[in-house]
Amino acid sequence: MTTLAEDLALALDLADRADEISLARFRAVDLEVATKPDRTPVTEADLAVERAIRDRLAELRPTDGVLGEEFGTEGSSVRQWIIDPIDGTANFLRGVPVWGTLIALAVDGTPVVGVASSPALGRRWWASTGHGAWTTDAPGTEPRRIGVSGVSQLADASLSFQSLAQWRDAGHLDRLLALSERVWRDRAYGDLWSYTLLAEGLVDIVGEFDVKTYDLAALMPIVDEAGGRFTSIDGAPGAHHGSALATNGHLHEAVLEALHAPH
User: Fold this and answer.
1) Cα separations (Å) of 174 from 31, 181, 182, 196?
2) Is residue 111 within 8 Å of residue 137, measured between CB atoms?
3) Is 49 helix (H, G, I), strand (E, B) or coil?
4) Dihedral-angle region of residue 190 (phi above 0 means left; psi in -120 to 50 means alpha; beta otherwise)
5) Mean pLDDT of the chain
6) Could you give the CA distance from residue 236 to residue 111 in angstroms, rounded to a whole number?
7) What is the pTM of this model?
8) What's 31's DSSP letter?
9) Mean pLDDT per segment of 10 residues, for the chain of length 263 residues?
10) With respect to CATH, is domain 154-259 assigned 3.40.190.80?
C-alpha cells in the first residue's frame, strides 16, 4: 500500500514528464492534428503525453486502473488514475497558452489527489485530501497554500462560465444570462484555468456543461482543499454527471437556486 504523500509525489513527477513533452510541441509549425469521432481535435502531443503517463504508471503502480481521454479505461481497481493529457487542446493547437495536463487519483470513485499543470503559463496547482491546496507562481519557486474567496453575496461575485455555446447546447443559456445579471462580473476564462482561479480566490463561481470525468477529477481535490464546493449543475456530488458547478462554498446554494428558479 502506498501513502497519499507518495501518490501525490508520483502525480507531480508525472506532471513533470507531461510538461516536458507538451511544451516541446507547443506552437510547433509541424504539429500533427486530427479530428476524433466526436469532432473534437487531438494532437500528437495529447497522445504522447498520455502514453508517457500510462507507461510510468504501468511501471510504478501496475495494479492500479487508468482512465484517460485518449486511450480509455485500462485495468480494474478501487484505485484509478484519471488523466486528461492536454486540457484545452483547442487552445494548444492555436498557440493560446491556457492549457494543461490534469492528473488525478481516485479511490473508490472519489478523487483524493489532483494535479493541474500549465507549463506555458509557468503554473502548477495540486492538492491531496486533508493536506490543503497549493500552487507555484513560477517554476522553481516555493509552493504557497491557496484558498477560495470569502465573497458571500451574488452581487459581489465573479462568474466564469466556459462558453455561451456550452450553455446554449445544454438548453440553459437563459439561466446563465439571468445569473450573469445578478453577479458583479462575468468572464469565460475556460478549461482548467477557471477552477484554479476559483481555488486561488480570484473567481467565485464556475459552471459548465459537456464535461467528462477526466476534465474534472483532478480539479475537484484542488477546489475542495481550497475550501470550495464542487458538484454538478444539479447539485450532485462527483465528476460523472456531464456538468460542473464549483464555487467558494459560500455561494453554492444561492447559485443552485438561481440556476433552477422558474423562468
Assistant:
1) 39, 11, 13, 26
2) no
3) helix
4) left
5) 94
6) 15
7) 0.94
8) -
9) 93 97 88 79 89 97 95 92 95 93 97 97 97 93 97 98 93 95 95 97 97 97 98 92 96 95 71
10) yes
Distance CA(198)–CA(223), nearest Å, equals 7
DSSP state letter for 209: E
> Which cell is 185 given?
462580473
H helices within 200-263, ranges in order? 213-216, 219-225, 252-259
Amino acid present at 67: L
The pairing of beta strand 79-87 with beta strand 41-43:
unpaired
CATH class in words for 4-145: alpha beta
Contacts of 158 (CB under 8 A, 6+ apart): 151, 183, 184, 185, 186, 187, 202, 203, 204, 205
Q: What gap in Å lies between CA 183 and CA 156, rounded to an integer? A: 6
Q: If DSSP states are collapsed to H, E and C, what string results for 147-159?
A: CCCCCCCHHHCEE
Three-state secondary structure call for residue 229: strand
* Residue 72 β-bridge partners: 68
Q: Domain boundaries in the chain?
A: 4-145, 154-259
130 burial class (0-12, 13-18, 19+ CB within 10 angstroms)?
Answer: exposed
2: cell is: 502506498
Long-range contacts of 1-10 (CB under 8 A, 24+ apart): 2/61, 4/112, 4/113, 4/128, 4/129, 4/130, 4/131, 5/128, 5/131, 7/105, 7/112, 7/113, 7/128, 8/113, 8/115, 8/126, 8/128, 8/131, 10/60, 10/61
